[in-house]
């Protein structure tokens, strides 16, 4: 779809930029790969949303499944945001009560 074409164009531009810069740093290459994978996942999820809005449920499921199969985490998991605290009671007690005003 259009998202895949945009991703191909972005990867091409990134490759040209790296070639011009002469990047030989393996750590930089790994970071760039992770960023590119995340960008690809984001594009695929946007494509899935467009497919869902257009009524193509099967296409939406395929696009989402592709992202899940790639194993890319676009949004940090709850325990990553809280620094590893997975105690639900603690996180709930820190949240304001519904209807409370600030």
TrEMBL record:
Superkingdom of origin? Eukaryota
For bias type Acidic residues, the affected ranges are 85-94
Q: Region annotation Disordered: residue ranges?
A: 75-102
Protein name per Swiss-Prot or TrEMBL: Uncharacterized protein
Organism encoding this protein: Trieres chinensis (Marine centric diatom)
